[in-house]
């Protein structure tokens, strides 16, 4: 195997300001499983993932989780998170409309209702409890 073809995504990080609210959303609404819940030096990291992708994880981490971050850096990250300025995650789904209805019913902040895009997907978008944008994509093949 060529060394350039053996690269796969393993882990991505999403900043959250309240792990319990994040867990209620990612676990209870989206159906992701909790794989790890670790506290260290006054901070907490929770790892979640889809049962359909056991080798891919999302780490829900505090803003500016770096212990070397200055108080000013921590404040700046918290402010960016509160404004929804940090990037989130794009998920795939088999049924965008059903997922949209479930997540909307749970009270999530809707950014975009299900929409057919000219590049062959139907997608919708929400904000998680911390303000991160999450997009859900159904491939339509058109």
Question: Your description of this structure?
Answer:
This protein is α/β, with parallel strands linked by helices and 142 residues long. It contains three helices and eight strands, in the order E-H-E-E-E-H-E-H-E-E-E. The protein has a four-stranded mixed beta sheet with strand order 1-4-3-2, covered by helices on one side. The protein has a four-stranded mixed beta sheet with strand order 5-8-7-6, covered by helices on one side. The longest helix is centred in the middle third of the chain and has 12 residues, at 71-82.
**Strand order of the biggest β-sheet:** 1-4-3-2
**pLDDT averaged over residues:** 91
Mind telling me the C-alpha Rg? 16 Å
Order of helices and strands: EHEEEHEHEEE
Query: How many strand elements?
Result: 8
Report the span from N to C terminus: 33 Å
Percent in strands:
35-45%
Dominant shape: globular
| Major sheet details | 4 strands, mixed
Could you list the spans in which at least 5 consecutive residues all have pLDDT below 50? Answer: none
Portion of residues within helices: 10-25%
Structural class: alpha/beta
Q: Count of helical segments?
A: 3
């Amino acid at each position: 195997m060529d060394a350039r073809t053996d690269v796969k995504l393993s882990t991505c990080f999403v900043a959250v300001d309240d792990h319990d609210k994040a867990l209620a959303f990612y676990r209870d609404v989206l159906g992701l499983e909790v794989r790890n819940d670790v506290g260290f030096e006054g901070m907490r990291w929770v790892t979640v993932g889809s049962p359909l992708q056991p080798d891919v994880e999302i780490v829900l981490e505090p803003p500016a989780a770096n212990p070397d971050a200055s108080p000013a850096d921590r404040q700046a990250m918290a402010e960016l998170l509160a404004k929804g300025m940090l990037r989130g995650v794009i998920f795939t789904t088999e049924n965008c409309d059903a997922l949209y209805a479930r997540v909307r019913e749970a009270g999530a902040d809707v950014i975009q209702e299900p929409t057919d895009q000219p590049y062959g997907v139907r997608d919708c978008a929400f904000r998680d409890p911390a303000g991160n944008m999450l997009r859900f994509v159904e491939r339509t093949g058109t």
